[in-house]
Design brief:
By secondary structure, this protein is of the alpha/beta class. It has 18 helices and 10 strands. Strand 4, helix 5 and strand 5 form a beta-alpha-beta unit. The longest helix is centred in the middle third of the chain and has 36 residues.
Length: about 500
Amino acid sequence: MKNYLLFDLDGTLTDPKMGICTCVQYALKEEFGIEEPDLDKLEPFIGPPLKESFMQFYHLTEEQGDAALAKYRERFSTVGLYENQMYPGVANMLQDLKKRGLTLAIASSKPTVFVEKILQHFNIYQYFDVIVGSELDGTRVNKEEVVLEALRRLFGDKPVDKEKVYMIGDRKFDVEGAHFFGLECVAVSYGYGDMEELKAAKADYIVRSVEELHEFLLRGLEEFKNPKRSQILFALAYPFILFVLGQMLASTVLSAIVNFINDALPQDKKLLLMNDAGKLEYANPNIPVAMEFVGFIVGAFLIRKIAFSMIRKARKSCFLSHLWPTPKKHYLFAVMATLGSVVGLNLGISLLDIAARSQGYRLVEEAQMAVWLPLGIIGYGLITPFAEEILFRGIIYNGVKKYFKPMPALFMSAAIFGMYHGNTVQGIYAFIMAFLMIYLYEYFGDFKAPLFVHIFSNLFAYVLMFISQVAPWIVNQYICLAFLLLAVAGVYLLNKDRKVF
């Protein structure tokens, strides 16, 4: 969570175009006789130090740059200063951030005396603990110098906690100033730096409106009130019960259909046969498994509206943390973490012989082994993961997050997912995999991430049962260790680039 926010002023909190551009226009005409009627052409002057801009864009000498700057300030100090507009929503955002206990600062290349007058003019001066700008004598004009002074005033003699500071600005200079000190920068594309400039500068995040910036900066600062137990229970139990009732309904209806068909069939083609214990059982093991898969489909159908609504809301929230396109290498790291976890854990379970000591798991394994392989791949590899994901990550995890912070929500939803499987082996495996699925969900901000992990996890676990029968050498401690190390490396590399918990 970021506690210290360094705001640029021009193009971030206020729109200074009219004031800055008309004063540049005035300086060029009065000092050098240069007519520049198009104010849009003068927009590049917004953000960087003015003297350098005069020299760069109009090929002035340093002496001429000083003269242009003096003429600029002649008009700006009395007129241009107030030819300014605050972006809608800024005052409300600053008030809200301050109310949440955050420390706000200004880090602007504009002279401090002008910054303070503008903040007072818009009645937002009181929200800032530290206000740093450049000096009228030409010192501290570079963004790095401004940011350094802001950090010095914020932290004093204490070490700067870089993990708790955001720099917020609209130009590449803000990004470069932040990165110079190892700070993350939130770039705003509604100002005067376009998307290409901000991407080229490698801004950590890019927001497109004051509203998005407001929501982004509040992430992780939600006020978690102590909810009533009935609220939590209802949020978790209602969709879960609906899901289970759907499965039960499908099972009941399909069982009745099978019994009806069975009664009409001749003895040699019966779907149900009497076993040695005198109980009816299915003649074909694929029938009850197919019925189970239909139950998952019906259960998922009944909770679909709740699930998709919550997934859309979560996506909007996650989007604010993933505005910057995810580098391709991050997907590679995610594959490493997934492949390593799935293969390593499954081999570890086989090597430790945990499965053999769990009667519940043995029954599940026997049932799965008896199923027609294509049916098992479709059911266990696609239908089951999809149904379980919209319930456990789509509804339960996103629902618990309304009442608890991400880490407790992760533990609670992972525990529920583990217990749901009904036996120790699958429970432990599901609990661990839920951690990875939720981590990747938060990391990429996309529901497809845990869904793909779940699909791969189920498919591999299912196929491994058959592979280990014909190639027992694959269940090897060295192979297991190698894949577990691959998983650790994948998570480490992901976490190194972006921390989500």
